Amino acid sequence: MGDAAAGDAAITLLIVDDHPVVRDGLRGMFESAPGFRVLGEASNGVEALSLAAGLDPDVILMDLRMPGGGGVDAIRALTRTGARAKVLVLTTYDTDSDTLPAIEAGATGYLLKDAPREELFTAVRAAAQGRTVLSPAVASRLVLAVRAPRAPGNEPLSAREREVLALVAKGTSNREIARELFISEATVKTHLTHLYAKLGVKDRAAAVAVAYDRGILGQPSS
């Protein structure tokens, strides 16, 4: 197994995919790299929920379309139960019908299986820190999807809304944002509601994607 760098705890993983060859490949990849530890594997979403409850991984690599229990339903259940694990979708599908439901269900990130090895490692580290991770193709699709049902207004974000959005992009929780900006959690939620409306989105991940697309947050870190 890959050992963590000195002084750093290894990021623990649960791999969820219905193909044994894919699971074996991912396990081998992560166990050969420093800083990661694979706790277990699941072949569908139902099995993933059971293992996640017992193993408590930092990150769950989640496929979407699996016989016996799909990824979106599993992500939704993990979000509903307040699971600590961050979910990074790793799939071959980047259609609107796959991308948006997974993000709305609570996935921290979304990558395609053709992502280079180092990009996957970087994405898992970012997800473990609560940062939103989207492959370029998925980010573009997500931006188009969130814009389609509604036309976002051109009203600019206030300075405070930009501060809140920048912290959201770093994966900062509402409580942590309140502490850092010396405001109440209720005020943070109010700012989020306003910036969602201005960006024409419904959640944190979509807000970050649209903000990067518009140049409000600069360029996503690779």
Automatic annotation (TrEMBL):
Domain Response regulatory: 12-128
Pfam families linked to this entry: GerE, Response_reg
Location of the HTH luxR-type domain: 150-215
GO molecular function: DNA binding
Modified residues (4-aspartylphosphate): D63
Keywords attached to this entry: DNA-binding, Phosphoprotein, Transcription, Transcription regulation
Source species, domain of life: Bacteria
Protein name: DNA-binding NarL/FixJ family response regulator
